[in-house]
Amino acid sequence: MLRTVIPAAVVSFLACWLAPASGQTPAGGSIQGHVVNSLTGTPVRGATITLRGPYAMRVLVLGQPGAPPVPAALQTASDEQGDFQISNLRPGNYELLQRHAGFVPSTLENIGNAVELLSIEPGQPILNVVVKLTPASVVTGKITDASGQPVQDAQVTVIRKVYTVAGRPSYSSAGGMVRSDDRGIYSASGFRAGTYGLKIDPPAALTQPGDPSGQAYTTTYYPDATDADGMATFEVGAGAARNVDVKLRKSTVFRLRGRVLDADGLGKSGRLQLLRKDGAAGTALGSVSSNTMDGNFEISGVPAGSYLLVASPTSATERWSARQPIDVAANREGIRVQLAPARQIRGSIRIEGKVAGSLAGAGIELCRLNSGVSTPSVPVKDDLSFSFQAVSPGHYTVCVTRLPAAYYVKSVVYDGKEVPASGFEAAADATLLVAVSAGGASRLDGKVLDAAGKPATYALVTLFPTDGIAMSALTGVTDANGTFVFPAVRPGQYKVLAWEANGSALMLQSAGMDALKPLDAKSATVKLKPGGRETVQLNRVSAEEKERAFAVR
After folding, report:
1. What's the predicted TM-score (pTM) here?
2. What CATH number should be reported for the domain whose range is 137-252?
3. Digit-coded pLDDT (tens) for 198-215
């Protein structure tokens, strides 16, 4: 199971403060600072400064289950000289976020996979905080048709290809969707420097064949691919503008017509998407039109291939969905998309062996493998039971969050079977059993170095079990000195890797251990004996190394 580990070396410097004597109120603290353009050093006026807190911890680990609740926020704006001040702050630790139109939103002291918070002491000001805002990058260009004429109202999305799981890329929007104007010109902004691609959805009128050839326009990935795998990428510098023109090309396309039906066989309206067959996020294509009254739909501009029809409600109060594979080699009529009610999953935690403390505060999350999206954490009750009321169909892994440090996950069984690395398919009326133990726990600690041989601050550390108990995988983060500690690990054999990029052991292992073989040179294999302790030193896998290794399958 994935568990966020705040290593001992991090815990040792978590800020604390003494409660005042009865009847006394601690003097409020304050923060004063200055906002500047990171490229020019000039003051930035009108920047929104948000201070969230106080948190109990000194460091926030990013992107991991079990995150603490987001506390209240205070806001102010920088003045003409770029100066700001927030006063009357309660003692504790605060996250400072900054935002301004034309700049990339950011968080102060975001280092690696964590954020170091600002510590406010009673009556003590923090002075001269320098907030650096980086100008947003811009991608602009012209969309034309096969004859070179401008295409108006094309939807253009700047996207990033992300490998959360080896060989299974997903595609995320970097700055929202923009439309081309009557000259075919588009302009997208608001994102940081990096490597990007483009996804262009032509207007609906261009997705309908105008002659018997069946040729029309479809979703295009830069420069001229009809599948996301064929998308090329380009670099955009910090605060720079990059011109990228795209000429759409015609291809043979088909039309899909059908109806979405509820459990009673009646038409049902909702959100309908045609995704690539693996359901990867960001791969929707075709022009979708639907009747909100009777559930009838039409999707035009679809090339031949295998896809996944996904239906979901537009209202947060409704609990149904559908995920239906479909092969397209010709126009299709009479398609029926049958909705299924959300699953209810009940379960419990069983403590094996000696009880080593209460499990109060522990929670359970389900993470969907094809999107990386987790269900909201549900609490473990006093009788050690838990339940999910509305789980959409799909493949999931199981994560125990906020598990006391003395315990480790021994096994996870769903519907009577041990959950493998590839996860489980949510089914109706099945139960989930999580076994935890404190008996014979092993300890693993170590150090992570970057490419220069220096301590890797707040690097991700993952433990992958190689003996078949997949859900005992663990995720942690190094401290400011590059060291890490897993105080309670299920005895067994593990592959250990450290990463620059964010992620989770459960997601990374879901494609199988063979997917990690290209990174063997940077991994360590350890055998943890009951009650034993091992120490390892790792060289961090850079974001580029991970990208290269995971792209080859």
Report:
1. 0.79
2. 2.60.40.1120
3. 999 999 999 999 888 889
